[in-house]
Amino acid sequence: MVDDEPTLTDLLQMALRYEGWEVRTAGEGRQALTIAREFRPDAIVLDVMLPDIDGLQVLQCMRATGHETPVLFLTAKDSLDDRLKGLTAGGDDYVTKPFSLEEVVARLRGLIRRSTLTVADSMDPRISVGDLTLDEDSYEVFRGGDVIELTATEFELLRFLMRNPRRVLSKAQILDRVWSYDFGGKSSVVEIYISYLRKKVDAGRMPMIHTVRGAGYMLKTAS
User: Fold this and answer.
1) From the CB of residue 218, how many other CB atoms can be counted at a distance below 10 Å?
2) Could you give the CA distance from residue 172 to residue 150 in angstroms, rounded to a whole number?
């Protein structure tokens, strides 16, 4: 999160941490470049007007060094020309001030989801957590050598859990990734599908899918 208004960065940092994201902040462009190199974020919220170098220059420096991190421009400049400058400089999305926290969070979810899907395309198609294995190419799932038959939605939900082992995923995050944030459904659908998965993945075995009360769900090696 890069902005020279401490009140704004504190507010957004709190909102994004509530979503379960780890957040770093910077008040100047050069500081942002240093933190980005060290932290290697999944997404950047970048103000255009900064005290030293502007956000467009920050982004150009990042892209010149091979960083393809998705960038959401956040700025008071709302003319079409300003938006085009941001996007043609390599930005991925644009939100103008004043803004709603919900809109920023939704835009970031979309950016991260698209970025994650792109990265996942180049990953090993087989994911393993303990004795549970999922093959993204063949859509096959095995636990301890036994075949587990899943529906398309169950498969997507299990894939998301397995891509994030030992990480608590909230219902909102699961809805966003599996059903997309504009699904419009209720969080109860997550509970229903988690119960379906448990019956197939954990039935008669040490449980791997765990409920973290008040926070969400986590998949970890059975012990």
Assistant:
1) 17
2) 22
Q: Which two tokens stand for residue 165?
A: 């082992």
What span, in angstroms and rounded, lies between the C-alpha atoms of 16 and 81?
Answer: 29
End-to-end CA distance of the chain: 38
Distance CA 197, CA 214 (A): 20
Beta strand segments in 63-213, E = 71-75, 93-96, 126-129, 132-135, 140-143, 146-147, 209-212
User: The tokens of 166 are what?
Assistant: 């030992």
Could you read off the pLDDT of 134-152 as tens digits, one per residue?
A: 998 888 999 998 999 998 8
C-alpha–C-alpha distance, residues 61 and 34, integer Å: 11
Query: In this structure, is the dihedral angle defined by the CA atoms of residues 31, 32, 33 and 34, taken in order, positive or negative?
Result: positive
Helix, strand and coil percent figures for the chain, each rounded to 5: 45, 15, 40
pLDDT per residue as tens digits for the range 63-114: 888 777 888 887 776 554 555 555 555 577 778 777 888 888 888 887 777 6
Q: Could you give the CA distance from residue 222 to residue 79 in angstroms, rounded to a whole number? A: 54
DSSP secondary structure string for all residues of 31-72: HHHHHHHHH--S-EEEES--SSS-HHHHHHHHHHTT----EE
